[in-house]
Amino acid sequence: MSSIGIRLRAPGARLRARGLVWLVARQHRAALWAGLAVVVAIAAYIVWQRAEMIGYARAHNVQGCADWNWKALCHGREISSEKGANPTAEVFRHLTDTYRTPLLHTGRLLIALPVLIGVFVGAPLFARELETGTHQMVWTQSVGRTRWLIAKLALPLVAVTAGTSVLVAFYTWWWRVARIQFQDVAWGTAVPFDATGPAAVALAPLSFLIGAAAGLLLRRTLPAMAVTLGATAGVQYGLNALRPHLLTPRTIVDEPDASGQYATTPLRPLFNAWRGIGDGYLSRSGEKIPLERCSSAVGAHGWDRCFARLGATDRWYEEVHPASHYWPMQWMQAGICLVAAVALAALCVWWIGRRRA
Amino acid sequence: MTDEIDATGALEASGLGKKYRRGWALRDVAFRLPAGRICALVGPNGSGKSTLLSLAAGLLTPTTGTVRVFGRPASDPGTRERIAFVAQDKPLYPRFSVADTLRLGRELNPRWDQSAAERVVAEADVPLSARVGSLSGGQRTCVALALALGKRADLLLLDEPMADQDPLRRRRMMGSLMAEAAERGTGVVISTHVLAELDGVCDYLLLMGGGRIRLAGGTDALQAAHRLVTGPSATGGGTPDALARHTVVESRTTGRQLTALIRPEGAPAGDGWIVTEPSLEDVLLGYLRAPDAPPMFTAEARATVTEVGA
C-alpha cells in the first residue's frame, strides 16, 4: 500500500513523493509554480500598497479617520475644508482617491480567484484525462481508480486552499487598517466579505470541487469549464443574496428632534456596520413600513400621502448588521461552502466507483 | 457463484456483450485463450476488437455476460497487476518526458521492471529526456509499449500497436516484444487488421466480425482444419457436388476453375481436385471475404465456464 502517500526517508528525513502523490505533483508542476508566482506577486502588491497607505495617513495625521455619515471625521473632529487646516479635506480626499481603488480592485481579484481556480484547475482535472484517453493508461496501472481519484482531488485541494489562505490573510490584514476610512463600503458585500476571513478561504475548495465534479461528469474540458464558470459565479451570487438573512439584523430607530431634524451625530451602533439592509418608517404600533412600499409614489406629495395611508409616523428605522455579525457570518458561510465541498467530493468518489461495478 | 475456474485460461469470455448508445458493439462472445499464447485479434474496423480489449482490461463494464482474466472477473482489483493494456491511440501525458512516463510506471506498479522498459525505449532510439508530446506516433507507441512491458504483467493487451510504425521498427518492436514474452511466458493479445504483421509470430487466433467471434483457436489447428481446393466449377454455378458434404467457407470461380476454402468432413473432394493446406492468411482472407461463413472454434478455444442464469 505504498503507492499512495509520502514516505519519510531516513536518515536524511527528506520528503520524497511516492506513487500517486508523485504522479499528481508531476502533472501539476507547471501550475504549481505559476500559482506560487501569482500568490507571491499579489502578496507583495498588498504589502506595498498597505505600507504606502499607512505611510501617507501617518505623514498627514489622518490615521483612523472615517468618511462617515456624510462627513469626514478625524480624531473626533470634523475635517475642515479650508486649505492649510490640518488635517485637510484635501489630504483625506487624496487618501481616498489613491488607495480606495487598489483596495477594492484587489478584493475583486480575490473574489474572482475561486472562479479561476474552478475553471482552470478544477474543470480540466478529470475532463482532460477523460477527453484525451489518458485515464485508460492510468486505470490499467496497478492502482485502483478510486485511490487515483482521491489523490487527484486531494493534492490540488491542499494547494489551492493553502494559496488562497495566504492571499486572504494578506488582504484581511490590509482591509483591517483600511476599513475605517471607507465606511461606505459595506462589509457584507462581496468585497470585502468574500475576499476576507474563512468565508473567502472556503470558496476555493468549493469552486475547485465544482470544477472537478463537472469535468468528471461531463468528460469534456470546454463544457466543464463553461459549466464551472456559471456554477461558481452562481454560488457567489447566491451566497451574497443569502448573506443578509444569515443573522437577524439589528434595527436602529431615529426620531426627529423638535426642529424636525434627524440626529446626525455619529450613532455608535452604525459605525463599522453593514448598512443598507432595509430602512423605512415605523407605524404607530411600531410596525416596519419599508421604503419600497411607496417606491411607485410620484413626487413629494405622493410619497407623503402613500406613507400616511400606510399609517407611518416620522420615526425612521434602519436595519443594519453590526460589526459583531461579521465573524459569525464568516463562519456560517465557510461552513456552508465546506459542507457543499464535502458533498461534491463524495459525489466524485461515488461516481468513479459506480462506473466500475 | 460455483463457476469452475480454469486457472490456466488467460482470457475467458462467456455470453459477453457490450451495447453502446448506437447499438451492440459485441454480442454473445464466448471463447477461451489459454495462458502464455501469442494471440492475434483480427477483424475489419468496427468488428469489436477494441471493445473486447477494453472489456478485458476492465475499462468497460459488460452489458451482458462476463470476461475473466486468469479466472477472475476483469473488473476485480486483483487482476489489475496481471494485465497490461495499450489503448489504440496510445494515450500518454504529452508534457511528461519519456523518463517521467517510465517513472509513472515505476510509481504505480509493484512489479515494475525498469531495465526491461528502458530496453524497449532504447531499441526504438527514443531519448529518455524527450518530451512525449514531441515524439512521432511510432515513437510514442514504443513508449506506451515500454510502459506495458515494464509492468511485468502476465497478459499484454495491445490494441493495434504496430499501426503507425515503419516496417523496420515494427519488426524490431515485435522482436523485443516476443523475446520478453517468451522469456517470461507472458500471454499477448495483439489486435490488428494487417495480417502480415503477425505472420509467424502468433500461435493463436481470434477473428472477429460484426461484434462476434468467427474463428478461435491455435493457428496450427485452424490451418489443419481447413483445405484449399481447386477444381472444375459447377456448370450451373453454385457449389459443385464434389464439395457438397464439406463446409464451404468461401469459393471463387475463375473461368472454369473454382477455388474454395473448405472445412473438410472426411476425405476432401475427389478426382480432378487439387487439395492443399492453406496458409493462415488464406484462412483469414477466406473468412473475411465471406462474412456469413459459419464460425469455428477449436476445442481449446471453447469457453469452459458456463454461466448459470443471466
CATH class of the largest domain in chain B: Alpha Beta
The CATH topology name of the largest domain in chain B reads: Rossmann fold
Largest sheet of chain A: 4 strands, antiparallel
Domain count of chain B, please report it: 3
Q: What's the shape of chain A? A: flat
Number of helices of chain B: 7
- SS content category of chain B: alpha/beta
Strand percent estimate of chain B: 25-35%
Quaternary structure type = heterodimer
Number of helical segments with 4 or more residues of chain A: 10
Mean pLDDT of chain B: 86
Rg of chain B, alpha carbons: 21 Å
User: What is the global morphology of chain B?
Assistant: elongated
Distance between the termini of chain A: 22 Å
CA-based gyration radius of chain A: 26 Å
Architecture overview:
The complex is a heterodimer of chains A (357) and B (310). Chain A is α+β, with helices and mostly antiparallel strands and 357 residues long. Chain A has a domain at 57-246. Chain A has ten helices and nine strands. Chain A has helices spanning 19-27, 29-59, 89-132, 134-139, 145-178, 190-193, 197-218, 221-242, 299-310, 326-354, and strands at residues 6-9, 14-17, 66-68, 71-74, 77-78, 250-254, 274-283, 288-290, 312-321. In chain A, the strands form three sheets. In chain A, strands 6-9-7-8 form a four-stranded antiparallel beta sheet. A three-stranded antiparallel beta sheet of chain A has the order 3-4-5, with no helix packed on it. The longest helix of chain A is centred in the N-terminal third of the chain and has 44 residues, at 89-132. Chain A is flat and about 85 Å long. The two termini of chain A are 22 Å apart. Chain B folds into three domains: 1-82 and 153-219 and 295-309, P-loop containing nucleotide triphosphate hydrolases (Rossmann fold), CATH 3.40.50.300; 92-145, no CATH class; 222-294. Chain B has seven helices and 15 strands. Chain B is an alpha/beta fold and 310 residues long. A seven-stranded mixed beta sheet of chain B has the order 6-7-8-3-9-10-15, with helices on both faces. In chain B, strands 2-1-4-5 form a four-stranded antiparallel beta sheet, covered by helices on one side. Chain B has helices spanning 49-56, 98-108, 114-123, 137-150, 167-184, 219-224, 280-289; strands at residues 9-20, 23-34, 38-42, 64-69, 72-73, 83-86, 155-159, 187-192, 204-209, 212-218, 227-232, 247-254, 257-263, 274-276, 296-297. In chain B, strand 7 (155-159), helix 5 (167-184) and strand 8 form a beta-alpha-beta unit. At the A-B interface, helix 1 and helix 4 of A face strand 6 and helix 2 of B. Chain A: The chain crosses the membrane at residues 30-48, 109-127, 148-175, 195-217, 222-239, 331-352. Chain A: It comes from Streptomyces iranensis. Chain A: Keywords: Membrane, Transmembrane, Transmembrane helix. Chain A: This is Transmembrane transport protein. Chain B: This is ABC transporter related protein.
